[in-house]
């Protein structure tokens, strides 16, 4: 039996997953509030990341900033998901922060609802109210709706306590439906979506 890593599955090839992070994650000082990212920075980094699929990104980021303000972190990564009533999502990326550096991470999670299809996405997640980098390693729940054939931009909001994640996704696939889901962030790759 040939073992396939999540990176190979999501990216369609490539090397095995990167080496695991060692040591303790940096935290921000309790009295030091991290500076938020400006909308122009988010759009510029998003355009570089999404490439030719970036049309419409500025409008989506502008709407997210209008609703939730400026984030103090963001994640750039790739993910794959599939569903038929119940579904799963797996992803891998890097969390960028002003004060605590960059953090490689993975996410996975189940969904249930009236949802069918499969997609592969490039994802930018805006992160709000993140007091310390280790606060990302938990479950964020919310509702999701999808209706596209081939691709397009879309965003949702996931929350846990005071931290808000706003995933902005674009990719290829066919997806239609509404579901309730959560994403669990981990430091190591796992196939267990729960």
Automatic annotation (TrEMBL):
<dbReference type="InterPro" id="IPR006311">
    <property type="entry name" value="TAT_signal"/>
</dbReference>
<dbReference type="Pfam" id="PF06577">
    <property type="entry name" value="EipA"/>
</dbReference>
<dbReference type="InterPro" id="IPR008325">
    <property type="entry name" value="EipA-like"/>
</dbReference>
<protein>
    <submittedName>
        <fullName>DUF1134 domain-containing protein</fullName>
    </submittedName>
</protein>
